[in-house]
Amino acid sequence: MYLLYTILAALFCFLILKWMKRRRYCMDIKRLDGKTVLITGGNSGVGKETAVALALRGARVIIACRDEDKARKALREITARSHNMNVLYMRVDLANMRSIREFSKTFLQKEKRLDILINNAGVPGILDWTDDNFSMCFGVNHLGHFLLTNLLLPRLRESSPSRVITLTCSSYRYQKLDFQDLNYNLLPFFTYCRSKLANIYFTQELARIMEGKGVTAYAVHPGYVQSSWTCHYSFLFQLLMKVIMFTFFVPCEAGAQTVVHCAVADEVTAHNGGYFSDCRPGSLRIFAKDAGVSKKLWEASERLVKLV
């Protein structure tokens, strides 16, 4: 009898884990021939799997990241898996505003189209500072992509209808923004949560500003994925998280599905400025839908990155 109970308990746990890791896959088969896609952080994790998926659909895919060696390795893998030779790498350091400006200038000079911009790159909750003295999470996850998107908006508008997809996280719900301390850098997890909330506000305000101009915007929660973000932490923490991620988190390929869905599906345009999870529109907490806060953050961000 004890053995039977053990087997039933094990089966129950297995089914619960399978249920927790279930994910919808993007079923839209639209091709992207002739389209140009830019993916920040496309050399690893969800970004790389997104690059493979969109390259398979015929897109010209440009991955933008800081580490050239990792990017070259990723390019070989993306090309081999997609059989698409039109995959390129361009260097940008999202922790450096000068690098973002130089990248954008080069991109606008070389690339005549930008149909889909995927703001994928990000850092976890680490207590560090960017080259411009912003907290690393806020500086990279929000301000870096804010500046990049604004500088590339002319090309996005020229290529309309175009889309901007920004990766966020459901952990946004655990914090609110403090406009007296946007550069908050005290508790790593809360710092990360605030940056992910900023991604949502950014998407909403971008959608409002671009209304009727051919550019739509979407915030995507890819789920909790088995990515390499733990590399910023100690060996013991990495070991612990590998066990947790293997048990509870989904593979990066599954995590990329909602990003791909927002990149190709026609139905998402009815939810401009919306938040997506598991290939469908998701619900947000009331405070994360405040248009006044979205506008205030946009204006504050413009001043911080010196766009005004």
What this model shows, in words?
There is one protein chain. The chain contains 10 helices and 8 strands. It has a single domain (27-304), classed as 3-Layer(aba) Sandwich (Rossmann fold). The model is unreliable at 8-21 (pLDDT under 50). It is globular, with a radius of gyration of 19 Å. Helix 5 links the parallel strand 4 and strand 5 (162-167). Strands 3-2-1-4-5-6-7-8 form an 8-stranded mixed sheet, sandwiched between helices. The termini are far apart. With 308 residues, the chain is α/β, with parallel strands linked by helices. Helix 2 (45-56) packs parallel to helix 3, helix 5 (136-158) packs parallel to helix 6 (188-209) and helix 6 crosses helix 10.
What's this model, at a glance?
This protein is α/β, with parallel strands linked by helices and 308 residues long.
Helix count from the secondary structure assignment: 10
Question: What characterizes the major β-sheet?
Answer: 8 strands, mixed
Name the structural class.
alpha/beta
For CATH, the homologous superfamily is named as: NAD(P)-binding Rossmann-like Domain
- Spatial separation of the terminal alpha carbons: 73 Å
CATH class: Alpha Beta
Averaged pLDDT: 89
| Topology order in helix (H) and strand (E) letters | HEHEHEHEHEHEHHHEEH
Name given to the CATH architecture:
3-Layer(aba) Sandwich
- In percent, how much strand structure appears in the residues? 5-15%
Order of strands across the main sheet? 3-2-1-4-5-6-7-8
Number of domains: 1
Question: So what's the overall shape?
Answer: globular
Uncertain parts: 8-21
Over the alpha carbons, how many angstroms does the gyration radius reach? 19 Å
Report the CATH topology name: Rossmann fold
Task: Provide the helix percentage.
Answer: 40-55%
Count the strands?
Answer: 8
Family: Belongs to the short-chain dehydrogenases/reductases (SDR) family.
Pfam families: adh_short
InterPro entries: NAD(P)-bd_dom_sf (IPR036291), SDR_fam (IPR002347)
GO molecular function: oxidoreductase activity
